[in-house]
Amino acid sequence: MTALPPSLDRFGGELENAVGRDLRRRHTRRRVVRGAAVLAVAGAAALGLLNGLTGGGPSVVQRAAAALESDGGILHYRMDAEQQNGDGTSVTWHSETWQLRVDPFTRRQIEVGSDGIRAESVTQGDTNELYDARTGTIYIATSEQLRAARMPTIEIVSRSRLERLTGSTHVSAAYVMRNGAGAVKVIATAQGAKRLRRQVARKRAKESSGPAVDEFRAGILALLDSGRVRVTGHVTVDGRDAIRLESLAGTKVYVVDAATYDPIEWTTTGNGGSVTLRFPVYEQLPVDTESLKLLDLEAQHPDAQVVRGADAYSKAEARLYPHG
C-alpha cells in the first residue's frame, strides 16, 4: 500500500462528494414539500400582506405558492439563468425540463452549461439515461449499478498505522484518496469503516421514488412560507402583466404571471452578486401518447445507439458534466 498523497482530504467532506453520492447532484431525489407555502391568513394580515386578496379568496402569495405545488400532468419549463459575480463578470446557462408528476415520476432534462456543452438525461425509477449528441449514443445504467461501481475499496488498519500513513496524530476515522482513473480508496480504522457503511446506508435509505425537487422551487416556496414577503405591485415583463413579490430584506424578488401565477423570474442577491432565473416557458402538459414521447430518449433520438453499463455511463457523465 502506498502512502497517502499530501493533498489528502478529510473523511467527512470528501466522502460526501466522492463516495457517498449515488448519482450526480442533478439527479438527487427528495420528496416534494407539500403544503409548505400556504400562509395563514392571520399571520399574513399581521404583516400587511393581504393586499392581493380578491373577494376574501386566497392572497397573491397563496396563489403563487399553489401554482408551484400543483400535481398531476407533465410539468414543462425552460429556464435561462444568469449569475452576476459582483466583479463585472457573469455566467449564463440554460435548461429545459419535462417532469411527470405522478408515479414513476419520469424526468427528462436538457442542460447547456456555460461552456456550451449540451447534456440530455432521463431518470425513471431506478433507471438513468444520458444522451451524448457527439457520439450519437444513449447510455443507460441503473442506480444500483452506479452505486456498486462507486463504492470505495475499504482497507482496515490500526489507529497507529493510520497515524503513520497520514503523518498526524489528529486524524479523522477514515481518509479518501483517488488514483489517476478517479477510483476511490478508503483507509480506515474499524470504527471508521463502520461509520462509512452507516453513512452509505443512510444515503440509500433517503432515496425515494418521488419527483426530483428543483432547487428554485424549494427556495421560492421557502420564501412564500416564511411570512417575510410583500407584494410590491404590477410590472410588465416581455409584454406580460406580472406581479412582483419581494422579501422584506430585499434580497429576493419573485415575479409571477398576473393571471396564472406561474413563475416568470426569480432573483436572489448576496455577497455582492446575484443569480436570476427566467422562465420563458412554464406549463402543464396532459399525460397522453404524444407528451409521453417527450420523456423518452429513444423516441427523441431514434437513430441513437444504446450502450448499457455503469462504466460507459460514468465516462459519458464525466464528458457531459465536466464540472460536476
Topology:
Layout lengths: L8 E2 H9 L21 H6 L13 H10 L4 E11 L5 E11 L6 E6 L5 E7 L2 E6 L4 E6 H8 L2 E4 L2 H8 L7 E5 L5 E5 L1 H17 L8 H12 L2 E9 L2 E8 L4 E6 L5 E8 L2 E13 L3 H5 L3 H4 L4 E4 L1 H11 L4
Parallel strand pairs: 7-16, 8-10
Antiparallel strand pairs: 1-9, 2-3, 2-15, 3-4, 4-5, 5-6, 6-7, 9-10, 11-12, 12-13, 13-14, 14-15
**Based on helices, strands and strand pairing, what is the structural class?**
alpha+beta
SS field, number of helical segments: 10
- Beta-strand share of residues: 25-35%
Major sheet, described briefly?
Answer: 12 strands, mixed
Shape annotation: globular
Q: So what's the CATH class?
A: Mainly Beta
User: How many domains in all?
Assistant: 1
Q: What is the correct CATH architecture? A: Clam
The CATH homologous superfamily is termed Lipoprotein localisation LolA/LolB/LppX
Please tally the β strands and state the result.
16
Supply Rg: 23 Å
SSE ordering: EHHHEEEEEEHEHEEHHEEEEEHHEH
Question: Strand order within the widest sheet?
Answer: 11-12-13-14-15-2-3-4-5-6-7-16
Which regions contain 5 or more consecutive residues with pLDDT less than 50? 1-55
The helical percent reads 25-40%
CATH topology: outer membrane lipoprotein receptor (LolB), chain A
- Distance between the first and last residues' Cα: 29 Å
